[in-house]
Amino acid sequence: MPALNWHAIDTVLLDMDGTLLDLHFDNHFWMEHLPQRYAELHGVSRALAQMELQPLFERNAGQLQWYCLDFWSTELNIPVRELKLETAHLIALRPDADTFLAAIKQAGKRVVLITNAHRDSLSLKLERIELAPYFQRLISSHDYGFPKEDPQFWAALQADIHFDPARSLFIDDTLPILRSARDFGVGHLLAVKNPDSKKGPKDTAEFAAVDDYRDLIAGL
């Protein structure tokens, strides 16, 4: 990973899940816990539950409703918020993410959280991990009505917080989102090498990736 030119960065835009928080919580919930509880609540086998859920997941991936707890509660006829509480003990900070956040805040950078997470998901995580004090703003894509994959999200973000894309750093673990940010003109982009602690490193394609947050602090 090349060293960052911090003198050319005024604003730091940070994703939450998989970037600051371990993606294991979300992967476990959507891929394991929710299918199991769906099967139990609807009186079907786990295999049948998976067969019913998979096409729904694939059809909605990358769209705003994919991240919306209200949508899934209605679509699946199950209390998704309450089910998330059952696995909330798995919510965890990625190693040294707080060290990085403290350092960039101390350096005087403008730090903004931008997440596709539904406000209820955001609140659940902020109750367990003290992230809010590091940020000037905490923005959910649901506030704008467009996911971060959509160019209209970035236009809405700029109209809201008046940031200079060329002098901004954005870190995210999702490649389509990074490409959307690049298309908008965000000048400094980093992927995340290992967003889920229970899985191996991921291919970050054309993007340089952060593996250790302590490495990013050099030159601040």
Automatic annotation (TrEMBL):
- Enzymatic class: hydrolase
Q: Does the keyword Hydrolase apply?
A: yes
One Pfam short name = Hydrolase
Mind naming one GO cellular-component term on file for this protein?
cytosol
UniProt-listed InterPro entries = HAD-like_hydrolase_sf, HAD-like_sf, HAD-SF_hydro_IA, HAD_sf
Q: Which CDD domains does the protein's record reference?
A: HAD_like
Q: Which UniProt keywords apply?
A: Hydrolase, Metal-binding
Q: Which GO terms describe its molecular function?
A: 5'-nucleotidase activity; metal ion binding; phosphoglycolate phosphatase activity
Does the keyword Disulfide bond feature in the UniProt annotation? no
A Gene Ontology annotation in the biological process aspect, one of them, is:
DNA repair
Task: Name the Enzyme Commission number(s) assigned to this protein.
Answer: 3.1.3.5
Q: Which NCBIfam families match?
A: HAD-SF-IA-v3, PRK14988.1
> What is the official name of this protein in its record?
GMP/IMP nucleotidase YrfG
